[in-house]
TrEMBL record:
Name of the protein in its database record: Class I SAM-dependent RNA methyltransferase
SUPFAM superfamilies noted in UniProt: S-adenosyl-L-methionine-dependent methyltransferases
GO biological process terms held by the UniProt record: methylation
Gene Ontology molecular function, alphabetical: methyltransferase activity
Swiss-Prot/TrEMBL keywords: Methyltransferase, RNA-binding, Transferase
Amino acid sequence: MKEVFNTASKVIITCNKRLSPFLQEEITELGYEIKRAFNTGVELHASINECIRLNLNLRTASQVLYEIGSFRANDPKELYDALVKIDWENIIPFDGYFTVTSNVHNETITTPLFANVKVKDAIVDRIKDKKGVRPDTGPDAHKTVIHLHWMEDRAEIFLDTSGETLAKHGYRKHPGKAPMLEALATSTIMATKWDGKSPFINPMCGSGTLAIEAALMSQKRMPGLYRMNYAFMHLIGYDEEVFFQERRLLKDKTEKTNLPPIIASDISKEAIEIAKINAQTAGVEHLITFEVCDFAETTVPTDPGVIMFNPEYGERLGVHSKLELTYKRVGDFMKQECKGYRGYVFTGNPDLAKKIGLKASRRFEFFNGKLDCRLLQYELYDGTKD
């Protein structure tokens, strides 16, 4: 078996639907060449040591998958026969622990769980045959994670170097009501092309995710600084010095001066308390001004920047008159109090969006969970457009 930490192979980096353009932007900025991009991720060529760097630096990704084999498999027996030939004893410690995840579309498989069991059996049988003992297995992704991608008669087996998803950035201990996933929050901010230097205003901030991600981005503070366990740490050949060297680089590039004003407000005192705790855990509480107030009373600095709302979407069928009024007030507030800013409203309710009463200059498509959403951009001109 090749020594995976220093040998480049096919790497698939996954992300939630519609986040791929932002993931591509991040990967290109890190200096990697993208071989292929698709709706839920990208493909590149890298070693696991390079995957360590990717895991620590990416804000919009979900998993970093390193391929260790691909083969034809028409049915579970062929899958098992191919997998048992891989020298797993050189990858997974015999006294270790692993879990299996999969993405399977094969007519002989009615449930992915059955495919997972075949993968687990092949690995356990191989290691037991070579070492006389077997590693533990289970559902938790806190140690080694093996991922099977099996489409029709084509199977690929990956080491999931991430384990727990990268889309959660590790600081949010109190999610609050209907929280926005961190990777999605980052992507929406990237969509605004905010420069990280001008003001970022987030009325209706809820549990504070948008404001916190903005603060982290302005500091160039990466998610890897909040996490001390990844699946790559549980593979044979892992050198912790590579990980700690990468963390030192992250610390060194963190900006501490000339940071922009970031203001987060919410009418709920409880929401602001939760947001403050999350910001404190992220180490950015001192960079955000929190205000308990109606959104229309939010402080808006005179220097123009970005103002972003993530209001309630309401029920999918039928629109609450109270929310209609809220959306209209959001439009009025942006038009009257935010001249010179670029305004953004993230919503999953197109009917309510019409009540804003302003013409969107751009629309970005996102999913929040399974809900089809839009980030609407408004140019809030000071005076007339001309």
